[in-house]
Amino acid sequence: MGNVTLTVDCGGTGIKASVFDQHSKVLVDFPYLTTPYPMSPNSLVEIISNYVLADHRINRVTVGLPGMIRNGKIVFIPHYINKRGPRTMPDPHLKKLWHSFDLQNTLHKKLKMPILVLNDAEVHAAAVITGVGLETVLTFGTGLGCAMFNNGKLAPHIELSHATVRYGKTIDAWIGEISRRRMGNQLWSRRVKALIGELYPMIIWDKLYIGGGNAQRISKSALKSFDYKVKIIPNSAGVSGGVKAWDLRA
Question: pLDDT: is 82 or 235 the higher one?
Answer without folding.
Answer: 82
